[in-house]
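A favour, since you know our structure tokens better than I do. It will help me judge whether the discrete encoding reads sensibly. The space below this message is yours for that.
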Amino acid sequence: QVQLVESGGGLVQAGGSLRLSCAASGRTFSSYRMGWYRQAPGKEREFVAAINWSGIRTDYADFVKGRFSISTDNAKNTVYLQMNSLKPEDTAIYYCTAQLVGQYWGQGTQVTVSS
């Protein structure tokens, strides 16, 4: 079983930055691939970024390349999403996910970017 708790969301102005955190726990969480998705009002949930716990493989959606960075702190069992140059269209609920065979989700953290 994997448990995920997101934090770090908030309200920022366009061009600002936020760092989201996903604290993971569970006996087998280290075997999972970790990622971030987001869902904006009126839109489907979409992939943002993914990473292995080793940090040697990362993947990003095209719309965040060069602005967002995903990383891990294995000692803290935490995955981060550093978001820079935020745009109003980045406004969404951001969800942490862990996947091996099944998939687990956190509760989400709200990010709001004002124009």
